[in-house]
Task: structure prediction
Amino acid sequence: MKQSTSFHVAIVMDGNGRWATRRGLPRAAGHRAGAEAVRRVVRIAPGCGITALTLYAFSSDNWTRPAAEVSTLMRLFARHLRTETAELAAQGVKLTVIGRRDRLPHSLVTAIAAAEHGTAGGTRLDLRIAVDYSGRAAIRAGDLLPDVDLLIRTGGEQRLSDFLLWECAYAELWFTERMWPDFGAAHLAAAIHEFHSRDRRFGGLPTREAV
Ligand code: FPP
Result:
């Protein structure tokens, strides 16, 4: 078992809409509950040994969603950044937003800049939020991150959906049927436990067969 000193987890946070619909709630309620799950996971991540966490909040293909849902999400991102910055800084979290900014509402661009500035001194956790992000576009632009060790996707789908395509070359993949708003400490622990039990060979031989 190979343990890296920098443990990079990436999460495709899927299932907010279904979580809400199953409860007879509007999809926006699912996104708000999803934001609570983000808060929970960020708080517990450093204690789980995670040094870098990248969250897929809005893909470049999500612009095709109804305008009302898109603007709800943009407002939610901006509000979350404004309300969380002080707490993130206190926790030693350095927040950056990856993806295109030129198509985002001005108020969100301003909130991103303030949150990045306010958390720039964080050294415990590198938190990256992907907004208007496309893995293919990032590769074309040479805009690459450190390798991902563990990729988690909630909501039952088993695909990458243009997220961190380059960085996930050797990522261990972990999928769960659980919807993102229901994701918490126990599920993160289960994913990490399984990750540590896998034999990561990076194209080499199993440790016990190497000579
Ligand atoms: C996927 O669920 C989720 C999104 C497209 C948005 C992710 C946003 C959040 C988790 C909310 C807040 C985030 C931050 C960073 C504050 P879906 O809507 O595709 O769900 P469905 O597949 O059930 O329709």
